[in-house]
Amino acid sequence: MIYSSRIVYIFVFFLFFFFSSKSQNLIEGYTTYSVSFDYNDKNEDIDIKDLFRKTIEKLDELSYRLIFKKNLSYYSIEKQLIKDFENDIYMKSAIKIAGDAEIYTDINSDLNLLKKEFLGDRFLISDTTKQYWTVLKETKTIKGFKCFKATLKIENDLNPKGLKVTAWFTHQIPITFGPKGYHGLPGLILELSENNLKFKINNISIEKVKEPIKEPTSGISISYNDYIEYVNNKINEFNYKN
Question: Which one of 33, 64, 78, 169 is most buried, by most CB atoms within 10 A?
Fold first, then answer.
């Protein structure tokens, strides 16, 4: 039987799509990320400069963990760090800069659920915002993996000037997760920058995940947009009183 080249092409395409989808579902494991900050202090007051420098130095001690399994992931700071530096004001400030939210991601529903405290209240923030990445041709090698560059710009009331996000992902680990709830790329994110804040992968362990990835349930349920409005109102209240 003779097949046309078009039929063969379509067959190969769907075969590739099928096995790519299957491989994503089969890959599970853990990663850890370190944090750094590109800081230009030329125009800062000396006292502010010293305070910020001490805070930035603490970022080197932070570590974040990403667990991924099938369509789910969970991202959080290493819990022991919070206990070890409970009374360290610079470490607390560093955690606020790098992010203190625990983030549950379900790519089947395109959902990020952020577990976060603000002014003594615990919130469960539902974010279903689509992440429209632009994948570029630029490449570099990270930890022996060939990575491709992708960019994303986020604009909201908390980031009126726009948050410029740059990710480096690899097709060699075909899962769509990354730090801080970023997802939607055809490979694991090994490095990510939010303006001057950078997350870089330390360790990758592809193995069976024994602990369940559970959707958090404790906290005040609120949408992402409503949470931003709430935070802005509180900031305005504080500014008005002062």
Answer: 169
